[in-house]
Write the structure tokens for this entry.
Amino acid sequence: MGEMTSTLPWLSLAIFVPIVAGILVLIMGSDERADFTRKLALFGSVISFLVTLPVYFGFDGSTAQMQFVEKTPWIDAFSATYHLGVDGISMWLVLLTSFITVIVVLAGWEVITKRVAQYMAAFLILSGLMVGVFAALDGLLFYIFFEATLIPMYIIIGVWGGPNRVYAAFKFFLYTLLGSLLTLVAFIYLYTQTGSFDILVWQQAKLGYTPQMLIFFALLAAFAVKVPMWPVHTWLPDAHVEAPTGGSIVLAAIMLKLGAYGFLRFSLPIAPDASHSMAGLMIALSLVAVIYIGLVAIVQDDMKKLVAYSSVAHMGFVTLGFFLFNTAGMEGAIIQMISHGFVSGAMFLCIGVLYDRLHTRRIADYGGVINTMPKFVTFFVLFSMANSGLPATSGFVGEFYVILGAVEHNFWIGLLTATALILGASYSLWMVKRVAYGDITNEAVKQMKDVNCREYALLAILAIFVLVMGIYPKLFTDVMHVSVQQLLDHVAVSKL
Amino acid sequence: MENQFNFALAAPEIILVIMAMGILVYDAFSHEASRKTTYVFSLCALIILTVVSLMQWNSGIGGTTFYGMYVADPLAHFLKIASYLAVLVTLIYSRQYVVDRDMSKSGELYPLTLCALLGQMVMISASSMLTIYLGLELMSLALYTLVALRRDSLVATESAMKYFVLGALASGFMLYGISMVYGATGHVDLAGVMQVIRSGQAGEMTLVLGTVFVVAGLAFKLGAVPFHMWIPDVYQGAPTAITLTIGAAPKLAALAITLRLLIEGLNGVALSWQPMLIILAVLSLAIGNLTAIMQTNFKRMLAYSTISHVGFVLLGLLSGVAANGTVMSGAYASSLFYIVTYVLTTLASFGLVLLMSRQGFECENIDDLKGLNQRSPLMAFGMLLLMFSLAGIPPLVGFHAKLVVLQAVVSAGHVWLAIYAVLCSLIGAFYYLRVVKVVYFDEPVQGVPAPDTAWSFRSGVMSVNGLLIIVLGILPGGLMTLCVQVIDASLKF
């Protein structure tokens, strides 16, 4: 596979600008100068976003080659290299990450008052690390970024989280660490087999059936926990409920994609035969996530928990799409990944807006919010619609493609998948009904003020993306199409 | 026959003996309560030694002397320099602590520390079983005395007794094993032992039995389960400054004699001692990590964590010879890398404890660290780095240490051992995370004196130490290559 290099190391900039910005915020910021700290962080996140734009504009969607490639020797003892590059799939995730970071910095603007500098720095550094995960083409580099993201997230949940934050932070860290440690052993095994840490070399490496199966399951341990797939999803509701709004946004919008991306970059191309033979299991697990977790979401009385469970259900669509091994399923899954980034981020932002005013996340404490916050409810309804997969929103495109792929694969799987549209509508719209409409039963709701300029702008930006993606998905699919096709072609060839 | 007395090779030891004696004599006539001059002289001695060893290494001086008793090779130079720097940093970190507690008043502290260092140097440069024993005893006797230095402290005296009795027992084991190996091979110098074993003339039964005792003695010195009982008590009971002296530099010397004895001398019976090391490693990883979870005392927790790290070092050592007899020196290099980076992290961990201890207050319990982030963000961040590095989370150096060892283990075909090791380090992650939790998530408690946040020479050194943990975590390549070169240039298989 050929590679295309570029003049400026844009991907390195995309990784290290936010990290350096985070370190600067950590050094220069303080609670006494909170306003300055916030502005510095915003400046850093905007610059970080801007340096990822050339990756989008300079991207050539007509080739499946790795682009913006950088390669320098790094650890000679392991012949590991500092090897970066993006294809039509990871390019979107890099952009999504830097974009969401701006949203997150703004989302914590007035809410976070203690240890502002550390809060902002954690998110900036986390952003750089996550871009690193998506851009890395060296297994060791990937692993280091993948694992390093745990540190800032652990701190974010533990320091700025809710009452049960310590439990949630530990559960988040240890659960995900368990999976990734097994992946490390798999990576080391691949290194001893191929003598290289290069992902592209691994993808081409011939492997027997048993090693493929072992590698598949070792990778599954990390990626399934991260996605998260049923039944290893239990850390997610806890982490989401306890994390501050910004933490929930990053978790749902990007961190879950680290796992899904891992399937695309590692599991499928490295162990194609194992992936094919395990496809039935993966589809079954995904369907359980889509249907059972969808049902679980309906009965939640905590808004954040409800959206957390709906995230698990939506990510079930993603893993389902991957293991259908057809274009519609794969592209639908990737679109779902990006769309879910916007929609779940927006949902958590909405809940954050409500929480900042009433300091409760219980659905029963609300009701009739539309009377006091009409602007907010407009957005809230839009995002809930997107969450339930209404046509013309981004949520529809991905789910529709995946259902299409599923029907192509097997009618009954398609039918079961399609029930998710009903379940999605049930939990999203029922929540909207109980929160936004009806009579005001809680006196405190009467005192709630509508969204301010900052919140309005945040919600509006996300709303634009959700609609654009829903109305004109070609913008996204065109660029990724060749990469997806190349991946499918690669997976179709047996390595045995 | 060529001249067998090449004193130039042993220049660092000779210089250190002279300087340690000089410092001892000077100290006897000193009236300074804080012994500042003695302290500065000791630091100077260490810097001079570093320069001497660097020059020796750089100019390629090496070889064996004193009828094969003593060897100066790149491994010796490398480990000696690491030991000097470890002792140097130890002295700098513990300076304020010993002054506050009047431990420097009688002046033995510095000469004794230098004597312990001398013992370590002899161990590192030993190429005969007798030299190894000599160095070991010199180091151990100095360390026993250091632990008991605060003779009015009941716990310190108790732990000194424990250390002494168990240490003497282990030395006995080792000596017994050495005598059997001598009986089986007719040699005390390691090159001779190796040759006789290779030629197949050694008495098999006696040799293997002797190996068992040698391994037991080494396991004690390294602190591997089931010979670990002294570690928690001594780490906790000794004054923190001395804990640092015991916990850092001696590990390097212990690894050196393990390499010399097992990998060089007893290389021929590797397939006999590798299974023994597997048992030691498996037990150390499990018991070290599981017991550390239950600790409330920070020093004791670090002691158990040391035991689990020794398990990892052993994993590297046991992966060197494959079942078909091929030797992979990379495995030994991985153990070397592990121990060097471990010493670096340990220095900073105990250094932070020393920094937080004040006059009349020992920062010993994990709860004493509560809310550190609100009192000193920089120290809290340092603690975070150290704990994540010990837990093996990238991008810190502890991750690469685990990576190289695991790679060696997988290359040797022990995939299940690698999986076991990572599961144990998952358990280990819990108690390191708990420290970070206490530091970051908890509110400060009343009654704990504020840590010293003023900038000083000591905190400068500590910052460099902390920075090294990140820098080596991002760019570990240089040190890894160095370890491989040193092992390849020094060990003869």
